[in-house]
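ok new one. same drill as before - structure tokens go in, u give me an amino acid for every spot. 230 of them this time. try not to just spam alanines like last time pls lmao
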């Protein structure tokens, strides 16, 4: 308990003195900031995540920044997007749903991205959920484009089998026997992701800033509750 309190105090002091957020320390000390994130219409509408299809993927995106995630776009390389991605306001979460094509032995895979408004860069998500786990597993990728790369592209092949480059930096992970958090960061933002291992998987994506002043107001208030050693 005392260790957690000390970490909490140090995290608050670090944020105030430097203006930077050490997310690993903050989450370990004070718990997830997700309690300050509210659900948007796409979540509140209670989409059933591809109910009725044997393979489906629900991608939930949380925006911890003060910048709206706008101009959402997607490429569906396999399957169908049941509910397309929507803009994500600061301090909110939204979701979209993709599933396999009916009456086919296929899965769902593709990419989606959002422009981080006023920054001239995009946050990118790649998902791949196969029909069978005999040869393949669920895969998730998270990416950030270089500044100035504002147009969505069909990044699936690059993110599924390739490496960072051509204005896109990313990380990917496989989700079969265990789950793990993947992340990609630049000097301003970090995008994290984690995914389930079932045929009806859910992926959770978080877009968060390093600068305290770039936090959504609702999260900034929570971070500022962290006490300082007096």
């Amino acid at each position: 308990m005392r260790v957690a309190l000390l970490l909490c105090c140090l995290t608050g002091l670090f944020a105030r003195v430097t203006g930077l957020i050490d997310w690993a320390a903050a989450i370990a000390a004070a718990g997830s900031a997700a309690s300050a994130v509210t659900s948007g219409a796409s979540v509140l509408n209670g989409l059933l995540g591809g109910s009725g299809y044997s393979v489906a993927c629900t991608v939930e995106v949380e925006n911890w920044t003060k910048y709206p995630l706008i101009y959402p776009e997607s490429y569906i390389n396999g399957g169908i997007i049941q509910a397309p991605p929507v803009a994500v306001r600061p301090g909110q979460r939204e979701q979209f749903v993709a599933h396999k094509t009916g009456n086919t032995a296929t899965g769902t895979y593709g990419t989606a991205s959002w422009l981080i408004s006023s920054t001239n860069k995009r946050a990118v998500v790649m998902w791949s959920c196969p029909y069978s786990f005999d040869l393949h597993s669920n895969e998730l990728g998270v990416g950030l484009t270089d500044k100035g790369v504002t147009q969505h592209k069909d990044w699936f092949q690059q993110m599924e089998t390739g490496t960072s480059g051509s204005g896109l930096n990313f990380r990917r992970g496989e989700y079969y026997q265990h789950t793990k958090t993947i992340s990609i960061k630049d000097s301003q933002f970090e995008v994290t992701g984690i995914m389930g291992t079932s045929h009806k998987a859910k992926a959770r994506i978080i877009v968060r800033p390093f600068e305290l002043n770039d936090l959504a107001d609702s999260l900034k208030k929570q971070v500022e509750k962290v006490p300082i050693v007096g």
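Residues 2-18 form the longest helix (17 residues). and btw The chain is about 20% helix and 40% strand.
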